[in-house]
Amino acid sequence: GQFIRQMSKLVADPIELDLDERRLHNAVREAGESSFGIDAISVWMFDEELGRLVHLDGGWWRSENMEVGNAHALARLEDDTRDDYTPPNSVCPGTDIVGILWAES
To answer: Exposure string (b/e) for 81-104, b if CB count within 10 Å is 16 or more?
Structure first.
């Protein structure tokens, strides 16, 4: 698979990922599991050709112990088999939560 995709699955089965994606997924998982107080990590990268931030395949981890206040909303982000699944669309810097955090860093 392609390492960077404009529209990517947020939750990926590590077996289905290519080598670079598995490495990223493992690094993100290890960082999350080794950090106190971290419930989830999402990895985005600025794509200079698109001028947008894109989510990276393998760049999502969520603690199994994360307390979820709204499981329905979280399932919409994680379960791509749902009719109401919301994939991580690319975003412009300064828009959406990802773009705002990137612009302010």
So the answer is: eeeeeeebebbebeeeebbeebee
16: DSSP letter: G
- Answer whether residue 9 shows pLDDT above 70: no
> Environment class of residue 15 by beta-carbon count within 10 Å: exposed (0-12), middle (13-18) or buried (19+)?
exposed
HSE-up (13 A, CA, CB side) for residue 15? 0
Q: Are 4 and 47 in contact (CB under 8 A)?
A: yes
Is pTM beyond 0.90? Reply is no
Tokens of 39: 């419930």
What pLDDT, in 10s, does the model give residues 18-47? Answer: 888 889 999 999 999 999 888 889 999 999
